[in-house]
Task: structure prediction
Amino acid sequence: MAVVRIRLAMAAIAVIPFSSLAVADQPKAAVAVAIDVIVAQPAQGAVEKAADEAEVVVKKKKVRVAVAFEDLVAPLVQALEGNIDLKAADAQVQQWIPQFTEQFKPMLWTELNFIRQTCDLTPEQRPKVKAAGDAALEDAVRKMAELQGRRNAGRPAQQPEPRKMIRAALKQALQETLPPEAMQKFADELNLRAERRKQAAILGALSRLDSAMCLTAEQREAIEAAISSGWKEQWEQWLVLAIYGDQYFPLIPDTLVVTHLNADQKAVWDGLQKVDFGYWGGGAQVEEDGWWGGKAAVPAAKPAAMFRVLMPAE
Result:
């Protein structure tokens, strides 16, 4: 509900004449005029469109409003609430939240487990870091749910990047928690992990292309170099393709592949089923053992003990 109200507030800014906003003693009068216009003749989709475009318009005009934002838009928000069913809009968002929460949780736990293995956090520090990750997960889920609602209504919107949001929030929490030398160690481990995932994703993609187009050694090297030089973080998702056997191929930009193929291979490339999965959790859901709440972890069973359980001595 709060998000919808904020978007209505942005809509208010969009419909208020900028010439009026530029003068400190006129904005409230301009709001009153805008209220009269919108409430009297609420055009279909006008508020939603204004909310989508408001931020862009404000940036282009470079307007500096000399009054408090909430003060200025509150009357218009209240007026618009009579014409828009805020509860229905929020209900549409809420219905998607459980699905995206389950989809994105593995991303959070992958990062938390990596931090647990690479950082020496005290019991007092752990809850703060975990809370930052939980907040980022909730924010990513909410943004994706809102995006789904927009898509269903035929309205375009920028797709969020949940993994990037979660990583950024956790990194910020660690920067506020760890001493500089420990933070540098973590950063080094992050870079090493990113490089290993990059290499794994590229080699996996090359293996698929080779199986479909019988690449020469020179072609493999050229395509590997091209992908590596143009690498993007979101291409980590290629790692999930192994789950689907040989059914799908990564959505690699044509410019990185086609120039290195012959005519027959280009025809094969054009016919391949290339997909973009969008999100890769990078791990399965794990069961909380209390460690992130500050409790001591349950000791793992030793390999020898596990072997005796599986294979009793005769």
